[in-house]
Amino acid sequence: MYNITFKFEQKGLEPITLNNVEADQSILELALGNEIELHHNCGGVCACSTCHLYVEKGEQFIEELSDKEEDFIDRAINPRLNSRLGCQCVLLPGSGDITVLLPDQTQFLGE
Predict the structure, then answer these.
(1) Confidence (pTM)
(2) Is 38 exposed, middle or buried (0-12, 13-18, 19+ CB in 10 A)?
């Protein structure tokens, strides 16, 4: 089981920690299932970069970066070395603590 902390670049949002999270779920699925806003224009199929986030802690607990994901991260706003796509961050079997930072979601059209 995992403890996952969502931090936010968007001003006024406090961190949210989800406890006792089971494996085989993506960070995107967890965010949406817990009313945490994370854009996902392609529906979570690794065909855009809107669910871009930063993994600050626990990268070893999620599936490795694929070439396809890396191509889309290059198109994200402000990519960094710890950039990932939420739809591709699937929790591996095991347990631990994961911390992710979500970019300001108001940067997307329609906000």
Answers:
(1) 0.90
(2) buried
